[in-house]
Amino acid sequence: MSGVPTPRESGLTFHRFCATFAAMKSPSKPAAGKLFLIDGYALAYRSHFAFIKNPLTNSRGEATSAVFGFIRALLQLLDEQSPEYFAVVFDTPEPTFRHKAYAAYKATRQRMPDELIAQIPKIREFSTALGANLIEYPGYEADDVMGTLARQTAKQGVQVYFFTADKDLMQLVDEHTFIYYAGRNNETQILGAPEVQEKFGVTPEQMVDYLALVGDNSDNVPGVPKVGEKTALELLKQFGSLEKILAHAGEVKRAQVRENLQKNHEQALLSQKLVTIDTSVPLKLTLDELRYRGLDRQQAAALCRELEFNSLLSRFMESAQPTVAKYHLVNTPEAVRKLAEQLKKVEIFAFDTETTAADPLRAELVGMSFSWQEGEGFYVPVGASTSSTVPPSTSSAELSLFDNAFDDFVLEAADGKRELSLKKIFQPILEDANRKKCGQNTKYDQLVLQRYDVAIRGVVHDTMVASYVLNPSLRQHNLDALCVEHFNYRKIPTSELIGSGKKQKSMREVPVAEVAKYAAEDADFTFRLYQLFEKKLRATNLHELFDTIEMPLVDVLREMEWHGVGLDLPYLAKMSGELEGLLATLMADIYALAGEEFNINSPQQLAKILFENLKLPRKRRTKTGYSTDADVLEELSKLHDLPRKIIEYRELAKLKSTYVDNLPQLVNPFTKRLHTSFNQTVAATGRLSSSDPNLQNIPIRTEIGRQIRKAFIAPQKGWQLLDADYSQIELRIMAHLSKDEAMIAAFRNDEDIHTATASRVFNVPMEEMTPEVRRRAKEINFGILYGMGAYGLSRRLGISVEEAQNFITNYFVQYPGVNEFIMGIIADAHKNGYVTTMLGRRRYLPDINSDNQRVREAAERTAINTPIQGTAADLIKIAMINIQRRLHKEKMQARMILQVHDELVFEAPHAEIEKLRELVVAEMGGAVRLDVPVKIDVGVGKNWLEAH
Fold first, then answer.
1. Do 460 and 371 have their domain in common?
2. Rounded CA gap, 571 and 567, in Å?
3. Domain harbouring 911, CATH code
């Protein structure tokens, strides 16, 4: 039977798959196709909460998580199953027979979140665009409509799949009807009757009685008190059905269960009625009206643009070449020399590299592409690189970091022999600072070619960085997304050439003609974006920020990534063993407190221990049970020691796996150093981030976190690390921007700002200050910076909302300039739709004028913080640029190797340390002139911990 999922695809064991397949293979009539029925609201809820920690919004501030998740699920279904019949079924607001039978039915269910309500129309609209039939029937739930359609169509030989994980619908599973849903990692799960019985311990026919006994919290179905899942299974195994259980209740051995069954006879029957799906909804639909109607590409693409689903948009666009595209494969000596002469004559050209790896420090050059006019591109393939057998030239002593540096890249003849040294031809052009160049993510290309002893100069424009400066809130600034965003064009995706996952191949294995088309297109559209962004940067007055800060910073980050940082691998290995011992001790303590062993990493098993065994109060419910996240455990730790131990275990296990065990795996095998990637186009505030590994998140407040910093060293003999950290820079920027006299005076008098604030707000003399009072003032200082209100502050300080509001009110009395500044920022944001930093960096706030109060207030908090945090980001970027220039100018060996928040880390020979200290303090302190002193804390040591 065509289209039946394989055991691997469905996640079934072989024997269970055979049972399901046998049932599917023998319908009462010849199979007429597959009908997929989707519970619309169930999938919408699931999609909404899947992104609850990192919700998706578009540039207008509209929530889009539910629509995105919903549509992605439908697309996966369509891709995998190609259904003949396809419908999305929705509930209606009218009461059903269940509400009439039991007034409290679903009474405890929380109201649908406003941001989800707002997305339902687009979910319906998008579902239609994907070819789904929308069905609903007043007075009946979606389950009833789905059940009725299943029974009606099965009679016509159709196989029915319910796209849901809802246990209610499992009562209808039989030889014609199945459950289909995406489990972990989006792996498809298909449940037939054998799988339902194996998963839940009851047959589909017994599911109604099972649910009637245990009840359903989500629908407020009462069930029988004190009858849980285990007891219900035992009763059904002994008696077979609810009717027989109730008839023989007196024979039940456990007294409490026996008594509850006898007392709640009618309630059990009522629960049975409530959970039974009505399969007799008076629908008047023909099978043909359920037929999949096909994809409306135009409507789907329009919705993707409206909702800003750039990653999905490419699916719905016809992949047509530009009308005037001329892409050239340059693979002869004559054509290479001609291209080089043309590059020497143009004012600016776009360039790109094709390589064998995403890591530029491990990648081998496959080819280079160039473009200098719209619709035309040139690709030069590069032969296999030759390893250097001689020391690198004195002009690039840095290359000695790599013992696998390449001394040349060549054009190969058809027989694979060397035909021409491409390096000799293109190196002078690429290294000529007077020949302007542009590119997309040029830091990568520069690092790749640096291994070939080619230092690219004259890069004046990076389209990825320009996109970020123009709109830092965009989720993606990669070339594919930018082509869709600005040209409504779907370029050839990389995966189309090299594949993905286990089947991914190297770019060198792809036929050169295919690579040429792909690479030339990249260069062509990079040049188009350069032309567009240059105009936009000037139109928005962002060109100065781009030209003087962001573009010079690219080269600073390139150099930092190139050098990397030393790691003490023996120390980390020893630390890993010690942490293993600590985790074992914690595990033993946890088992002792729990009274039994269990999988500590399983939220479900932990929930059972906490809420069933220890009877701790249940807090927040999730899709799979009751939450055991950090907030819940923190609350429960006030009542029992176990939650605190779990928190400690989780934190320790995460540090061990993320840093102690993982960092050595990331050390470059050639340099023996760790080369993190500094991300310039991620944080909307302008701050830098890092990845592979993320060094920004190493905790400094915990002892274990501090010990991890000890692993970062200056490995060269006679060298040390120097750490320079801005002290309270965001509060100093707040003082400068707000012009608040009291706050400025505190900094000018070198007072501790938190102690000064505590003294003013709480009316406590500074000499009588306690650490607790200072801590409260510190929370208020930083809370104000981040736009925190009374509720947020009350939670941070563990006080009432009223008391927190009084603190905030008194704070603004003491610092009236800060209050005026905040009010002015919010007013400007409402008027302009964006806020700016001191250096002119913009952050657009699309939901600043939202009708939804919660959404609007979140935007206002962002408006308050962005000018401060963004200015701090600008300040350290300027300092980095100026420090790097001076290190080069003064021919110092010292080098900048890390940037973490407001902190810079350097390595230098001991003889240069004092000079480096003076240089760093001068440049960090003088990066931007403020009305208050800028203080830099500097430390020196043989490792990062010692230096900090």
1. yes
2. 9
3. 3.30.70.370
Instruction: Mark which of 496, 523, 540 sits at the end of a domain.
Output: 540
- pLDDT of 1 reads 31
pLDDT of residue 581: 96
* One domain for residues 513 and 414: yes
Q: Which residues contact 52 (CB under 8 A, 6 or more apart)?
A: 65
CATH number of the domain bearing residue 130? 3.40.50.1010
Distance CA 747, CA 731 (A): 9
In a domain, 553, yes or no: no
376 bridge partner residues = 326, 373
Q: Express each pLDDT in 29-79 by its tens digit.
A: 444 689 999 999 999 999 998 888 778 888 777 889 999 999 999 998 988
Q: Per-residue pLDDT for 185 more than 70?
A: no
Give the residue among 518, 525, 535 at the shortest CA–CA distance from 375: 525
Extract the tokens encoding 667.
Answer: 């050390």
- Asked if 86 contacts 290 with a C-beta cutoff of 8 angstroms, the reply is yes
**pLDDT (0 to 100) of residue 486:** 84
3-state DSSP helix/strand/coil % of the chain, to nearest 5: 55, 15, 35
Q: Can you tell me the distance from the alpha carbon of 363 to that of 848, in angstroms, rounded to the nearest whole number? A: 44
Residue 225, domain member (yes or no): no
Helices 265-275, 207-214: axis angle to 10 degrees equals 130
Is residue 389 in a domain? yes
Quick check: 172 and 135 in contact, CB under 8 A? no
End-to-end CA distance of the chain: 67
CA 673 to chain centre: 27
Average pLDDT over residues 710-734: 96
By DSSP bridging, strand 621-622 and strand 386-387 are: unpaired
Residues 131 and 44 in one domain: yes
Residues 268 and 261 sit within 8 Å (Cβ to Cβ): yes
- The DSSP element (H or E) to which 463 belongs, if any, is helix 463-470
Q: Which of 803, 796, 766 is nearest to 781 (CA)?
A: 796
Q: Nearest CA to 649 among 568, 572, 593, 693? A: 593
User: Which domain covers residue 912, as residue numbers?
Assistant: 678-737+830-948
Q: How many beta carbons lie within 10 A of that of residue 618, not counting itself?
A: 16
CA dihedral 627, 629, 630, 636 (to 10 degrees): 30
Between CA 202 and CA 241 the distance in angstroms is: 11
pLDDT of the residue at 281? 94
Residue 207 lies in a domain: no
Q: Quickly list DSSP for 545-608.
A: HIIIIIHHHHHHHHHHHHH-BEE-HHHHHHHHHHHHHHHHHHHHHHHHHHTS---TT-HHHHHI
Tokens encoding 197: 């019985």
Residues 611 and 750 in one domain: no
Q: Tell me if 710 sits within 8 A of 944, measured CB to CB.
A: yes
Helix axes 40-50, 142-154, angle to 10 degrees: 120
Residues 700 and 582 in one domain: no
- Mean per-residue pLDDT over the chain, rounded: 88
For 843-873, write each residue's pLDDT tens digit.
Answer: 998 888 877 788 888 889 999 999 999 999 9
pLDDT tens for 557-566 read 999 999 999 9
Tokens encoding 494? 């990389």
Return the bridge partners of 886, or none: none
CA distance 835 to 862: 9
- How many structural domains compose the chain? 5
Residue 758 near residue 773, CB atoms below 8 Å? yes
Write down the pLDDT at residue 74.
94
Residues making up the chain, counted from first to last: 948
Rounded to whole angstroms, the Cα distance separating 208 from 245 reads: 13
| 623 and 690 housed in the same domain | no
Work out the burial of residue 624: count CB atoms within 10 Å of its CB; fewer than 13 is exposed, 13-18 middle, 19 or more buried: exposed
Q: Are 682 and 790 found together in one domain?
A: no
